[in-house]
């Protein structure tokens, strides 16, 4: 039996989620961490749209996905701005150097 | 069947993009792979029927966010870090693989599509049913912009004394500089006069 389109999408969502979490675990560059977070959110977005497709409520899924996109973009913007400031003030983008700060 | 093949192809193209985004050493290349992933996902989303979101995802995810990343990498520098990983890669990969397989085990196979509702228009759903979401989004955008301005603002040098003293001292310095300039100009002027005479 051939797998249904929904199941293929769900496998894709799970795989993207895994790659995003893997990126968060192994990256130590601040900008790379924001990029990994973006992959994670994209998998969530695909999950929301797939759920809407299954339930035949694609319009509701679209409005929720729009909120996800807006929140995701704001998170990316703030994350990038923080990374730029950290680079300016401390001179590195390595997350482990940040943990050595004392104050 | 055709649709299934299209989804398989798109997912199979998106996964290497995501993997390369994480694995590439250079940040700029990583941002470009992310844009590719975003474009492929927007095709997928468009085919699922969410046309508005697909267009927004393409313009925001593949356009705006990529431009932001390129700007940030340009400012912060493409710094390569050659040090030991926080979590050893095999452990991280194994952990994530087990997690993803468990997730797939629990959610697949899903029931065939349940046709439960009558189709409504996107605008109707967005503004009438999810009006609060729109309000939250507007607040989010404003707070995001304010936060960005606050973070990116150049820090001023800290004041040495009390604020009023600082202001008074600065005014005195300005007056002194002005007086010096005036004296110098007068001297120059009188010198010129004498020379002409």
Could you explain the architecture of this structure?
The complex is a heterodimer of chains A (103) and B (197). Chain A has 103 residues and is mostly helical. Chain A has a domain at 28-93. Chain A is 83% helix and 0% strand. Chain A has 4 helices and no strands. The termini of chain A are far apart. In chain A, 57% of the residues are buried. Chain B has 197 residues and is mostly helical. Among the domains of chain B are: 1-83; 162-197. Helix content of chain B is 77%, strand content 0%. Chain B has helices at residues 2-23, 27-47, 51-76, 89-107, 122-129, 131-152, 163-196. The longest helix of chain B is centred in the C-terminal third of the chain and has 34 residues, at 163-196. The model of chain B has no long low-confidence stretch (mean pLDDT 83). Chains A and B meet through α1, α2 and α3 of A and α1, α2, α3, α4 and α5 of B.
